[in-house]
Structure formats: structure tokens, C-alpha cells
């Protein structure tokens, strides 16, 4: 094999380099040309040195277990057996970082850094180590040779840190595992933080994803006065794992049109493999200055002169060779500047001495002896380069989950609906909640936002629009409904964008709610997964603070999408949620308005969870006065003695259980029907907090077996009407004593275009079927109550027939109220 | 209330309209101006009449239960109690349809129509009814008054058809429930079908979604010679449910730049509420001519002159008022041209006589008496307008699942790996499969494609690249790896685009495979849901034919993402899949190379399913010779007697079960460890087809209880090592006799950056833990084998320690082979 490291090694032997001024510089292993630009010769020299140091530290993380400063010749035992992390994108990430640092220092910015490209973790780690924040946060990783060795070793090593940005990465609030969310997270952080600048590196691979492609349009929702600035930087290094990237293979003029079409003002910097880094530094410094000047001008216009019209925010397209400064040719194949440098350019460093030799040569090409002193500490001028304290992007409390804005919660009890007689009056639960959320938004102007994919009004939360309206800085027309740059409701028809903005907003210490149709929340399954995994991992990072919970409000739920048919019916998000670590997920199914208010107050107070609340938006009967609602929601599960027919002191004959708005209604109506059965002792159990059904060993909310048995008995039939897929209840309860007696009715993909009641009938969750179920399950009852059983069946058939004739539910069903109030 | 219907009703009373030539026309209720353009006066008159007829039929579907031709004054009982379907987008959809028809007729196109906007179902239904194909496919919906009444009534009515495009919609292969997939489905249909033209209406709402935003770039993968043409038409009506659309609120010049930046050649047609339809018709006809001319020129250049360079395909931005021709002002508020016309402009037609009167006026404004004869049949010139037979978009077999190309499957046995001794040799299963898939691609050039988000090579399927390489028509550079317009591998870093292209390709009768990292397939959970729901609903539509199954090949699976950490570890797609109707979903977990080959042959032969196959890409031991592999996969579950220690004729002491590549390896290694226990009778059960675990009442593949008990016993402990989240096995098996004895180990979100074996240890799926589990579960064994039990535990600790020191697994583990071969 042949390996030529450092394409720009040039012809100046390292030993000949002196400290004198000129094109050749002591801190670099390659010849640094003179180049025109805003950087003084000295600035250029130090910035390039810092970049080289970051690159050296990146290569070290990928490859080395020991001998970090290459004080000895590189031996087999110094090299990791598994080479992880991606070199290809890393030098570009480091380049942006050092140039962002110049901006921060010169302009006194409060800035954070979002890294989109995958597995480029060595870069931000290296920068944080150079800035000293790594050592501050992880005291064992000292800023010296020993710490460097530990720092290298832990990277993508068992028990160590991941190869992409993660909760362990100083300065990151963006997990780099799944691609596509850098820009939306950056914008989420910028919302309501006027002093913040977000340098957001977008990978040209991730730019192909849908969520990223949609995210460019967020600029139409950014208020230049009250929001911070995002500076997107496309890292156009041309390749993914094995393929070129689309954006790298269209003419630059076309890419410029695309960016202008997205509403940006693009700036291009290009470095080919033949470009001297000095030119790239000067080029990037030039456009960084231009962009930050333009941002300042936009903000001044908005803030000083009140011009909130949509500006063309600047952005940068930075074209650099993939794997720049790494081995150029390996085993006769071009590596630098191609997809072959995507992961590790030298793969056989444990088995091929020449590869290992090339690695050593590559490491030495950065001339570590001039970047670090004998103890392994960065030389003073490198230490002096970054901004200080919290201005370091790796130490910014905003990025490190160390800022948590207070949330002032108005009393939800003020919005309680009166329940004079149980199950007789009706309210639209989400509409009432919307009134309280309006008060929350008003009391927390600047730290609370509602997000929705054009469904805020549809889900009846439009009272929130009283607070500033809908966020909007694009064109407005007469007749628009409350569009305003001051809006506290962020609406865009992209579930991905809503979810991502909220994640970015929460992870930087603010609060919010995402409302969505239940079926379509599956669109963000994977984003939910990644956020939950962030919370799981973050809990083990001692310097990370609390994150406000991610609160879903799912309405237009499966049982109220009868008219839209099967495509709009899917309660399976609950199943996805339940797969994550019990410590971070909660699911609530409040059956009426007061329970929804109580549950939501709890959710907004909570930290570090994902709370999923499914609630109705159609008029629904009110069951619980507020004081009872609070008690019931606090317990999460309980017997509704007013609904049952138990005899105190004796066990019931059957348990009728329910969870969810419509199942609760149907179970109550079934309980009503069953009052016709003389002497039948029905226990009525309602579940609000689904996690209560799990064993206490599985979830912190789980009931003990004793508690569970006390509710569900150990041997009586249980008929359970459930909001979601029925198997979920079995999955939660399969270890319980009485599980074999549990008969669960839920959604089973029996959906079509129909009426609400016909839809519950199609899935056997309706009152008649539940009542018949009870008759069939209680020993001896079916025979004794054959007449009733048949009448229930007949009425059910009539109900179906009625919908086919009239297109709506029969009044007996639709107008039913609880008659025993 | 006040309601002014039909903004362009003008000042000509309907009764004054005559059949004479001139600006006022007999077939329209409004004054049709003269306007310059390619349409003759007669063409214009008939096309406008057809549009009006389609609009009338659309309003009828939304509102009427009876009295379809408004022969009587509209009474309460004629109006539906629930008003569903969205009027706002419908007139625009109908306008494009009639203009597409002109193109089809004039140019003899083979064309299909994709409708992106949501709930615009009345439009395509109306067009299909006018074209006669509705009656051909649904004989009860005759093309006369009675049929019209039934046609109106069934729309979004219990037991009827959905309000959006669905399997019941003639001419649609695109479900309109969840937004964002119109363009990707259109391109999927166009792949490999050079004669096809796809008119694809993109809603300006759905244009905000991520998948749609990413789909524009598919033009870089379209070969103008061997693929068909997609003509995207953005229906820019300006509003979503409650918000304006982003694309409607940027300057037209910016939108043009966006489209040019995406690589298109945009054409604009604008109709304001004040625009006379004649101008809109002429305008649309003009750009339709231009676009189809350009498409023809592109295709000629490619096909006649061999120029396969990327063209700028034409596209259209059609700006029309939302709810055009509907009520202008309702209850004093502007409706036409605003978000208020999004759903139904007159909502109170059952309770407000004025609303009902306005509806009648609106219906009459289309002058149905001049569009339909007394019997309700369209007048001859309307019947004569559409193209004939299969050229009608509503009757095109390509769209109606009536074309199914043959798939020629080469013998997979030719790729079998030899298994001289069980569990000793190793192969990368997906690499071997890739060899067979290459043969499949070669044998079916033009009807088989492989899709992947830049993971084809990573998942080791790169042999498929031998057949034409990777699809690519953008710029190429020296050193690129086999990019070609002829590629049979479609790679773009968007799981949404991969999934959507494959869906469009399959639903138009071709075959394919989607390969993806297991964790990231969650990105398309919702698209999978919608496709499965299409298959569920399609099965009940008698005129729909079979669809090739959607075949996933998930590799880089949860147990081999140890190095990438928690973000890359998620086996939960299986849980999502299992929620869909058993008739359409299948999950396979082949444990080695030969079983993967056998399973995949079965999948590619199947129809109407979604097949999920999870397989390894790393070297894995070979267990089954091909003949055994075929038998085992055909059974889907079975006892591996060579791995167990049963005594014939007596029950085992314990069942060691497994499903999945790594769990099978660990279970086998555990079985090996357990041979140290004198006299212990271990039964070894391997599961390939997960559906076999369900009761036969729940899934067609389900084992009978008798069969299940025969495998798993009725009372012996079962230790089950599972690929996914352990609860899935409980959910499938909770009704089985011996379920309470089943102890399942699977992934439980215990993930970090580590080694393969450490990762299975973290989740208790490792050989030592499984063996200890067995010792603990078999009565008396733990005490008798205390020494062994402790040794196993100690070795396990050593294995963990080893990874922390060496960064890889200890040789005893990593190099283990089955020693009893």
C-alpha cells in the first residue's frame, strides 16, 4: 500500500520550519500560503494552528488508545482495535468552529453550535477539549497528556462516549445519531432568545432528508426582533457513505437559486483539495464577517426601527474536500476528497504496518510538538484563542441544559367546568384546556410556545391565539386569521418541523406543547425515539440539568376519525412510546374536561419526561367535579363507585374497566345497561395513567401486585374497554394475577368511513358489546339474562342499520347521558 | 345570513343564457368571457362545461343524500346530516383533470393522475363518474339520476367511500389520507415506465411537509429515456385548514427560484377570484401545451439522440382561488378565496334555511339541466370529451392495480452456502443475498428495483450494483462508484423518498426491496401504516388486482449497532408492524445465510403483504444446509434437535427458544454451555416467522394451541432470547397454555457505545445469562449446579471487563463456534 498523508504537506520539510514570519509557519505541518482577506497574518497563523490542533485531536480520538502525542513510534498496542467515528466530515466541522470563535470574540456573541453531519463527534469533542470545557465538565479528562490519552481512549470505546454528538458532548443539545434535524433544532433554540446566535452546520447528506428540506422554510416564522439568529452553513463535502450528495452535484448557480428560493441570502466559500488552507481561512472569514454584519443589520432594522418584515437571512455554502488534510491516496486509491474518506481513511492500522506508518505520518503532519507543550497542554496562544467562560460554545449553559426558565402556571382550577350531575353536561375538553393554555402563554411570554401542524384551531386550542396570534413573518392578506410576528402558536404543516422546533426549544430550557392529530403523530415516531433516548442518556450525565418535559396533546383521536376513515385512525403511537425507558415516558388518557386540565397541569410541571396525553375535542360528558378529578388523576387509576353497583364489603361479580375518552363513555353506558340485571355487582375502574397497569418493578408509576389485585380482583372477569390497540393492555398486565381473566376491547384496524358509534361497534368497544361481554363472562348470567342479551344484540344491529339509513347515529345512542346522576 | 354563490355568476340571469355563440354559454351558469389562447371557442366551451359538471358533482357528493339534480327545491331531507369532504381544493383538482384530458387526447398519452391535496376526493370521484369508469367498476353507480343519487349518498357516508383518494377511487394508486407523498408516489409510478405521463397535483399545504420537500430532488434520479415523465402541478390555493400556505406567501419570483433551484422549469398560471375562467382555461391550456412539448423534447433528446444528461423538467404553479365557484360570502364573511372555504363553505344546511337556500342556488349556478339530460346522464358533448377506454386516467390499469408485471426469480439455491459442519463456517448473510438480488435485478430489468438511503453498500448488497450501477443523472466525477442513468439501485438519503418511490413502483405492478438500517426504518412508520391500510382496504375492492409485497430488508440491526450506541438501536418497527391487520403483515428473522435466502425468495413471490425481514450483515455462523433451511423457513418455527439434548420419547426439562440472528447465536452458545450439566434435557426452538407465535385465530400463520404446546410444552420453563423488545413475544403468546413459564430476554433500551457482546450482556440476552436463567428455572438445578452457575457469572464479569480494557470482545466469546457439529 501507499499512503500519502496531508495533501498539503508541500515540499517544506517539517524540520526546516522556523518561527519567523512568512508562508511557512511553526504551528503547522504544511505550508501556509499568504492569502488576501480580513485575517491578519498572525490571526491566520493562530487560527490555522487551532484548526490543526482540533484535527490532530480528532484523528487521535478515532485511532489511538495510547501514546497520544506520538512521542514514541506508533506501535500496534497504541491503536484501537475498532476504528469508529467518521473522519470525512470532521475537518470541516473544526474549521467552522474556529471561525465561529472569531465571530464570538470579535462581536461578543452569545452563540451555540449545532453539528448536523453524522458521526463527526471527534470534532466537537476536540474543540471542547481545546477550550478547556471538557476538563471542567469531566475532571478526569485533564488538559494534558494523560487526559488526552483518556480522552482519545474513551471515544467510541466500551463505556465511553458516542461517535456523534450526544448528551455527553459539551456544547451540544442536538443528538447526531439520526440525520435531518440540525436546522430545526437550531431554530428551536433561537426562538424567543433574541441574544442568541446559532451556528448550524448542515451536512450535505442530511440535507437530502425530508425534515431538513422542510426546515429551510422556518425562516418565515422567525421574528427578527424577539428571536435569535440562525446561521446555516451547508458543509458541502460532496459525499455520503458511498454516494455523492445531490446538492454537491448541481451547478452552484442552481444551488444558489434553491437557497434564494428558500428565502436565504447564500454566500459561497470553496476549497478544493488543491486550495491552500490560507485561502479557505480568508474566504470563510470574509463570508463570516459578511453574514454576521447582515444579521446585525437585520436585527437592528427590526429592533431599532421596528421593521419586522421577513428578511433574507444570510447562509453559507462551505465546499471543502471530504477528509481534508487526511491521507490523500491509500492503497493506490484517491481517498481525500472522495467517499473513501467518509469513515476512516486508514482501516488496517492493526494488521498493516504501512497503514499504521501512514497514520503516524498523518498525525505528525499536524506537528503536535508545536501545538502542545511537553506535558501535553495546548500552547498558550491556542489556549488564548477561544472566547472565555460561558461564551465558549462548548460551555454555553443554553446548550448544556444548564438554563431552565421558570414556568409560571396559572391555577387550572379556575377553568374547571361545573359538574352539577355526573355525565349530563358536556364540554369540548381541548377547548377548555385551550383557555388555560392561553393563560399559560400569557403568563410566560417568551418561555412558552404551542406547536401544531395547522391543527391548533382544528384541535380547538384557538384561545391560545389570543396571545399574539399565529407566528408569521411572510406576506399577509386581509382576512387572515391573526397572523403576527408575535404569535405564541407556531404552525407549519410539517409534524417534523413542529416536533423539532419544540425539541430545540425545550432542550434550551423553555416550555411547550405539541398538538397533533393522533394518527399522524406516527410521522415523528423516530424523532420521539431519538428525543427519548437523549433523555435516557442525559440522565446519566451529571452536569446536564433538567429539561422541561415534551408534552403531546393528541386530539382528533382514533375514535373521532370515523368520518375520515381508516387512514386517520391509528392509536399506535402509544405502543411506540411504551418501548422507551420507563423513566422517561408517561401516557395519560383523561376521560373528560376536568381530568384533562388536571393532567395537563401535572405535565407542564414535570421535567425530563415525554408526556403523551390523548384527549377529545368533541363535546363529551363531564363526569368528575374538579376536586375529584384531581384526586383521580393523582391516583391515575381508581374505582368510580358512583358508576358501579358494588355491595360494600363483598367482591364484585365483574370488573368493567376503561381507559380513554370514548371507551369510558361506552363503558359507562354499558354499566347503565347492566343495571337492568338484578343484583349484578359491577365494579367500574377508570384508568387515566396507563403506566399504573405495569408492575412496579417495570415503571415508577406501576401498581404493586397487591394494589392491582385489590382493584381488578384475583379471579373475577374483567372487561376492559381501551383507547388503543388491545394488545397494549395485555403487554402491560400479563404478569398480573388475574390477567387470564382480562378481556380487552380496543381498536383492531376495523375502520371505514362511518359514524362515531358505528366505529366503536366495528371494533367491539361499544356499550352493547361490552354489556354482552359481561353477561357472557359472569358465570350463569348469559343463560339467566337471555332475553336482555338478545335485546342488546338487536339494539346493536338497529344502531348499525340506523347509520346506514340516516348517516348519523341514532338518537338513543348519540344523546345518551348518565341517568343515575 | 347572506350567501352569494358563484363569484362569477355575473349579471346574466341563468334563464337568459342561450345556445348561441358568444361570451355567455349554455353549459355554464356564469358568463364565460372570450380569452386568447390555444383553445378554440368550442373547445373552451365544452371544457368549461365539463369542469362545471365535475364541480356540480363534487358539491353534490359533499351535500346531497337525494334530489341529486335539484329537480325539486332543496329540502332538509335532501341534505346530509354530516358534511364531509373538502370543497376548497376540489375545483382546482377538476380544472387540472379536464386539461390533462385534453393533453391525453391530443397527444395520445398514457397518463395517470395523482392528487395530493387532502380530502379532495369529490373531484376524482366526479371525474371518474363523468368518464363512465365509475359505473364500469361499480355497476350500481349508474350514469343516470338514480346512480347519481347513490353516488352522492355513498360519499363519506357510513359504509361508503372516503373523502380522500383511496383504493375505492378509480384511477388512484395514491391514498390521500396522510399528506406529503403525492410527488414521490408519482415518481415511483414513472420509474421504468417510459410511456407513462403522471399528472401530479401537489397541494400547497402538503408542500410544507418534509417528505414532499425532499421529493422534488428525485429528478436527479430520473432517466429521461427509460423512465416516464412526471408533471408536477402545485395547486396554489393559498390556505390550509386555518393558516395560509408558505408557498403562497412568498413572492412569485422567489417561488420560481425555489423551483429552478430544485432543478425544474416552472410555468405559472394565476387565476384570482376576479379572473374569468376563460382566461384561466386559456392560461392553463397554454402552459400545458408548453410543458408537454418540453417533455416530448426532453424524451426525444434522450431517446433518439442518447442524451441522458439531467434536463430541467417542466412544472406548473397553478394559482386559483380556494373554493373557486363556490359561495363568495357567507354570513357576512368572505369565504371564496380564503381558508373558510377549506372544508364546507355552507355548514348549517340542515339547521339554517338560508344556508340551504344558498346551497341550492350554488348547485343551480352550474345549470345542471344543461349538463345532464332528463335521465341524469351527461349530455353527449360531455361524454365525448374524455379519452377512450384505458386512456381515461380513471380507467388506466396502471393506476387501478390491474397491471402486474411478471417477476422471474432465479434459483436462490444456487447461492446457498455450504454447511459442512453446523455453526463453524461464517458468511455475511446480506452479502450472499445481494448476489441473488443481483441475479433477480438482471433477470427483471425494468421491473425490479432496490431502494436504500445510501445504505446499499453498507448493508452489503452492493452486488446489485453490477446491474447498471446506482441510478444517477446529476453531475458525475472521476472516481464515483458506478453512477449511471441505468442503475437498478435507487439511493437517496431520505427514507421517506425510498419508501414512497417503492410504494409507487409496487402499486403500479412492479417489484422491489427497501433496505435500511433497522433503527431508522422508524422514520417511515407512518408511511408503512398508510401503505398497510391501503392493502387492508384494497383487499375489499373487487376490481383491484394483486400488489407485489413491500419487502423490507433491515440490517445494521439493533444488536450490531453496539458501536454506534443507543441512537442506532431500536427494534421497535416490529411492534408498529404487528399492529396492522394480520392479513397484510409478515415478520421474518432468519438466523443465518441460507435461511435468509429462503425467506427472501418467499417474500419476493408473495403478493399483497408487507414483509419485514431483519438480517445480519456481519459474518455469522452457518447453521442449516439449504434443504434444511428451506424446510425450517417453510415451517417458520421448529426444534433444532442437533442443538438440544432431548431424550426421544420424553419431555425436555427446559425449552431454550430464540428468534433473530444474534439471539440464535447466544442461545446456541448457551446450549453449548449447558451441555456441562449432566442429564439436562434442553429443547432448542428457533423461530423464523414471528407470526407463528400468535394464535391461529389472530393470524393466518398462527400455530394452533396443540402445535404450540407440542413445541413449548405445557409446563416446562421457557427461556426465550428475542431480537426485539421482549414484550412483543408476550403480546403474541399471552394466550398460550405455557405463557406464564415464558421468560423473554430482548432489547430494553440498555444501550451505550460498546462491543457486540457487551451489548447483549447489557440486555441480558447473552449466553451466560441465558444459561444461568435455565439453571435458575429448572427446579433443583441451581442448587445442584452452584459451581457452574458461579463460573458462568464470573466469566460474564470477565467478558465485560475485557471489553473495557481491550475495546473488543474476548476471543473466547468472539471466536466461539458450535463445537458439536
Strands ordered across the widest β-sheet of chain A:
13-10-14-15-17-16
The two chains with the largest interface, and their residue counts, are: A-B, 125 and 124 residues
Q: Give the rounded overall mean pLDDT of chain A.
A: 94
Low-confidence stretches of chain A: 1-28
Count of discrete alpha- or pi-helical segments spanning 4 or more residues of chain A = 26
Based on secondary structure, the structural category of chain A is: alpha/beta
Cα distance spanning the termini of chain A: 86 Å
Proportion of beta-strand residues of chain A: 5-15%
Largest sheet of chain A: 6 strands, parallel
Total beta strands of chain A = 23
The whole-angstrom Rg of chain A is: 31 Å
What share of residues of chain A is helical? 25-40%
Name the quaternary structure: homodimer
In words, what does this structure look like?
2 copies of one chain form a homodimer. The first copy, chain A, is of the alpha/beta class and 821 residues long. Chain A is built from 26 helices and 23 strands. In chain A, helix 2 (90-107) packs across helix 9 and helix 23 (767-777) runs antiparallel to helix 25 (786-806). The longest helix of chain A is centred in the middle third of the chain and has 29 residues, at 277-305. Chain A starts with a strand and ends in a 7-residue tail after the last helix. Mean pLDDT of chain A is 94; it is low at 1-28. Chains A and B meet through helix 7, helix 8, helix 14, helix 15 and helix 16 of A and helix 7, helix 8, helix 14, helix 15 and helix 16 of B.
